[in-house]
Amino acid sequence: MRFLHTSDWHLGRSFHRVSMLDAQRDFVGHLVGAVREHAVDAVLVAGDVYDRAVPPLAAVELYDEALHRLAELGVPTVMISGNHDSARRLGVGAGLMGRAGIHLRTDPASCAEPVVLADGHGEVALYGLPYLEPALVRGEFGVERAGHAEVLAAAMDRVRADLAGRAPGTRAVVLAHAFVTGGEGSDSERDISVGGVASVPASVFDGVHYAALGHLHGCQTITERVRYSGSPLAYSFSEAVHRKSMWLVDLAADGAVGCERLYCPVPRPLARLRGRLEELLAEPAYEEHTESWIEAVLTDPARPYEPMAKLSARFPHLVSLVFEPDRTPEDPLVSYAERLSGRTDREIAEDFVGHVRPGTTATDAERALLGRAFDEVRADLAVREAAR
């Protein structure tokens, strides 16, 4: 059986205030064309269909167009909600859409109710695990600790229990939206850490033949059977080096997996240019980037006059301007930036305790208290988002 694995469409998202709607529509057309060209048996969409819980009308219209085009192909589509989606909104009409071959899986309680397809070698059970916000689903799964690893493990236990009751030789595919250990993130993904921990081990998916993951925006292979498709479009300059694609997955009769990358159209290349203003304006090597979306990182010791206007004359698609002036190692701003670089909000808060109480770092009890505070804020935000 052949699947097309995609995720993280983020319909309605802009790129530094530039609308991506036309590029997203082009991707939908590319997706439909790939399904036809490669004789795909099912499409897997692993979450973050929308960019926010209440998407703009234009994004909803594009989503509706995408569903109609996929349904017209007569090829089943299995789609789960991600951490950017409102599960309730995305799941409206799921029963009716299922009759048209569009199978929405947004309810955590239904994670062990697969879409069952069949080929000449038997049945394939497709399990859709929507994004599981630990604070919201811990009661459903009966876990003591509200962590990503715990709730996802409990959900997978249900999947394996259902699979054990099916005919011998039934192959299994899981869709999930999570940060799996070994994955590489980018700047455009929303933080989902709980208790300072965001990732779950790949071993949580043991027992199934393929795990189609969403959340991380770079296409990557965690194991041969556990993969991220990545987003079809770049949504931050940290993705400038990504080659956006989908996975074409062939599942053999014995459960063996073969995967091929299908590359997505690029609306406009990205380039991050760094240097002093006069260097960026004069460097001949940068001529190749005049049609790219540009983030200019200026290193001038003092902020130059009207840099945006001057740079835009050479780079008409300049969308981001960052100031990182060259400083001496003795400059206090350098050491402060170094201390903050790569640190989480929780770690910065712990450092602040040591700053206001010199000579004494945060105690274990204080670190636990700060961790609970950050987790409670995240949980409150998740509840509010779900209620919107």
In short:
The protein has 388 residues and is an alpha/beta fold.
> Uncertain runs with pLDDT below 50, 5 residues or more?
none
Please give the CATH architecture of the largest domain.
4-Layer Sandwich
Rounded mean pLDDT is 91
**CATH topology term of the largest domain:** Purple Acid Phosphatase, chain A, domain 2
First-residue to last-residue Cα separation: 39 Å
The percentage helix is 25-40%
* Count of DSSP strands: 19
Using the coordinates above, name the CATH class of the largest domain: Alpha Beta
Strand content: 15-25%
The largest pleated sheet is described as: 6 strands, mixed
Radius of gyration: 23 Å
Q: Order of strands side by side in the largest beta sheet? A: 6-5-4-1-15-16
The gross shape turns out to be: globular
Which sequence of SSEs, written as H and E, runs from N to C?
A: EEEHEHEHHEEEHHEEEEEEEEEHEHEHHH
Number of domains: 3
CATH superfamily of the largest domain: Metallo-dependent phosphatases
* Tally of helical segments: 11
Structure classification:
alpha/beta
